């Protein structure tokens, strides 16, 4: 009986181990099957109900209408600036006032992107959109009511109105683009980019030409014969006030409609998981893995906004300088260009953005813009001598900006997970919007300085165009290496990766600071731990107090990630944190740093993380624990044998 005891224990232990290994291999096989099918199949939400489909249709209409209004507001100041410069020589010679009209809205947009990015992630996309429409409506009301002791005072009030409206317009991006992107992920991942591009960029482009239609009619009535530097009885109050007043009609319509819009299902799922609170894990993962893509999104938006807003704001002035047309004709030409070519190109770019991919589409746009800018500048005098040739060529070139703009709009909404999507979209795009502010502010000064510093002339304009061509070649280079490629890639898989990175880094922090079961049991999930407390203890506390705080903080983060036992903590800390950020720069750097063989393993770990199921950890933890127990037993047996030998030697 006694002699068979160890044998029975060994058999029972082997049976348990075999069962654990079988369960573990089955779970691993399920994960590999998911990975072989791709992240798209392995990370689907529940099937859409009829109510969900109705909500997605409402969201689509609200998105399209909102960006049509955005497009109208963006170009409302272009004709007004040209009109004021035509009528009042003091405005034509005042670079500060011209720049203020051009950038006031962009300042509002920049702050709106930052503010509403947080609001959209914390309070919800729908609430943010309603507040955005209220800001745009308030800006339009101020524009209608603009007044002053002189025309300069009225223009400055218009500047304030544009800034207020800009806050709501900036929020339109951070609340609407992530929401419609998440809805599109639910419908069709492969054509997600096309749907978002049509509802956002294409409708915004249509809106860009809407003020030209309105203002063409108003100018025909009130300022028909206004030429550069000649005030020919133009009733500018009618044009300016009605330009804002007419826009209030669609703004009110959109505001009413938005009360029926819904937050996306992906956002609702994430809200249930995160509990509406950011922490240092989010910041750590962003800084550790998201810097290259953030650089790409920021710089691309910075450069294209610099080019687009500066040339768009002063486009009619450029047209008047080059071919010498009246205000009425310059607006009519802008509208004709749009009808013939400009409004169609966004749809062409939207059609290819999923087929070519985000990076290749944007590279094509930058390459075309840079090459044609050089041609345009080189043949400047020949084109100036033929006004029709200038109009046709500039119209043709301008349409290809959409091949840059559409990926620039899409990538920030795809490159970051749902948990922080709107916030990071707002940060990246607001820093990018600074390009529009810098470009619009400096364009008149650059033009004047390269014209000899006295008055803007054609030679100064030509030198400015050379400068812009160089910026477009710079955009091509940065796009190639720093823009991530997200075509046909599941956003749900990216959400899973981000959640897993948070868990694994929380476990690593806890192991690093020596967190044990006692600390995990004692710490409260709702404890007062944050990054500021960490810095405060780092700078002003003793070494022992700092270490105690860090240990408690690490235990708090571990419990928030549902790491409640020491065994699970150790196991999750041992999992890899390899993450492919989908930029060429990171691919080349990691290949050089790791070598081809290790980089292949790096890619495999990153893909498996996108379909990782924490429920499979139970068997893995037991297997891991039993393996550790075997190693400890072997060490004890060796120690016991060595002790017996030593004692025998001593007896002898």
Task: Give a description of the structure.
The protein has 30 helices and no strands. By secondary structure, the protein is an all-alpha fold. The chain folds into 2 domains: 50-489, Growth Hormone, Chain: A; 493-611, no CATH class. The longest helix has 37 residues, at 151-187. The radius of gyration is 31 Å and the shape is elongated. Keywords: Membrane, Transmembrane, Transmembrane helix. It is found in: Membrane. One of its GO terms (cellular component) is plasma membrane. It is a multi-pass membrane protein.
Entry summary:
With 652 residues, the chain is mainly α. The protein has helices spanning 5-37, 39-42, 50-74, 76-87, 89-92, 95-122, 125-144, 151-187, 192-222, 236-257, 265-274, 280-289, 291-313, 315-323, 327-342, 345-356, 358-378, 380-385, 387-398, 402-414, 421-449, 458-482, 491-512, 517-522, 531-540, 543-560, 566-573, 584-594, 596-609, 617-651. Helix 6 runs parallel beside helix 8, helix 9 runs antiparallel to helix 16 and helix 17 packs antiparallel against helix 19 (387-398).
């Amino acid at each position: 009986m006694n002699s068979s005891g160890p044998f029975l224990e060994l058999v029972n232990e082997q049976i348990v181990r075999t069962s654990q290994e079988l369960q573990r291999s089955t779970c691993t096989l399920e994960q590999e099957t998911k990975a072989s099918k791709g992240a798209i199949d392995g990370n689907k939400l529940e099937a859409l109900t009829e109510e969900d489909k109705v909500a997605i249709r409402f969201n689509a209409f609200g998105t399209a209408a909102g960006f049509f209004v955005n497009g109208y507001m963006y170009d409302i100041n272009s004709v007004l600036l040209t009109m004021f410069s035509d009528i009042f020589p003091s405005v034509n010679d005042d670079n500060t006032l011209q720049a203020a009209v051009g950038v006031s809205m962009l300042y509002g947009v920049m702050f709106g992107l930052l503010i509403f990015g947080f609001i959209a992630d914390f309070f919800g996309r729908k609430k943010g959109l309603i507040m955005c429409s209220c800001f745009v409506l308030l800006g339009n009301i101020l524009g209608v009511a603009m007044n002053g002791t002189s025309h300069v005072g009225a223009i400055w009030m218009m500047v304030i109105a544009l800034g207020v409206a800009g806050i709501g317009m900036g929020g339109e991006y951070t609340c609407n683009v992530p929401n419609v992107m998440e809805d599109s992920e639910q419908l069709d991942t492969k054509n997600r980019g096309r749907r978002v591009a049509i509802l956002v960029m294409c409708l915004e482009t249509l809106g860009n030409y809407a003020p030209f239609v309105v203002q063409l009619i108003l100018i025909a009535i009130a300022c028909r014969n206004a030429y550069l530097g000649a005030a020919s009885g133009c009733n500018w109050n009618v044009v300016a006030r009605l330009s804002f007043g007419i826009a209030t009609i669609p703004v009110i319509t959109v505001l009413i409609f938005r009360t029926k819009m819904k937050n996306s299902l992906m956002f609702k799922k994430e809200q249930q998981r995160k509990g509406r609170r950011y922490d240092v894990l989010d910041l750590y993962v962003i800084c550790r893995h998201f810097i290259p893509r953030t650089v790409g999104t920021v710089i691309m938006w910075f450069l294209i906004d610099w080019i687009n807003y500066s040339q768009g704001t002063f486009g009619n002035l450029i047209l008047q300088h080059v071919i010498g047309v009246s205000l009425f004709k310059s607006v009519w030409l802008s509208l004709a260009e749009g009808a013939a070519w400009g409004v169609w190109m966004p749809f062409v770019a939207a059609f290819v953005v999923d087929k070519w991919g985000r990076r290749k589409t944007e590279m094509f746009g930058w390459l075309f813009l840079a090459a044609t800018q050089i041609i345009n500048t080189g043949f400047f005098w020949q084109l100036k001598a033929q006004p029709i040739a200038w109009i046709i060529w500039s119209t043709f070139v301008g349409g290809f900006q959409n091949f840059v703009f559409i990926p620039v709009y899409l990538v920030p909404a795809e490159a970051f997970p749902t948990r922080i999507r709107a916030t990071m979209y707002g940060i990246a795009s607001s820093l990018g919007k600074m390009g529009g502010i810098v470009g619009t502010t400096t364009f008149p000064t650059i033009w004047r300085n390269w014209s000899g510093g006295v008055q803007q002339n054609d030679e100064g304009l030509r030198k400015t165009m050379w400068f812009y061509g160089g910026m477009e070649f710079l955009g091509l280079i940065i796009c190639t290496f720093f823009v991530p490629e997200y075509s046909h890639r599941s956003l749900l898989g990216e959400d899973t990766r981000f959640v897993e990175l948070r868990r694994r880094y929380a476990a690593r922090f806890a192991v690093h600071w020596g967190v044990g079961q006692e600390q995990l049991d004692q710490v409260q999930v709702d404890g007062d731990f944050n990054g500021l407390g960490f810095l405060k203890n780092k700078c002003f506390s003793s070494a022992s107090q700092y270490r105690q705080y860090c240990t408690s903080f690490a235990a708090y983060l571990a419990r928030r990630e549902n790491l409640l036992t020491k065994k699970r903590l150790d196991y999750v800390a041992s999992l890899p944190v390899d993450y492919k950020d989908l930029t060429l720069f990171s691919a080349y750097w990691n290949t050089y740093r790791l070598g081809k063989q290790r980089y292949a393993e790096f890619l495999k770990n990153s893909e498996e993380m996108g379909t990782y199921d924490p429920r499979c950890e139970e068997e893995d933890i037991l297997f891991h624990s039993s393996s550790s127990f075997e190693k400890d037993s072997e060490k004890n047996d060796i120690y016991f044998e060595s002790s017996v030998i030593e004692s025998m030697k001593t007896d002898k």
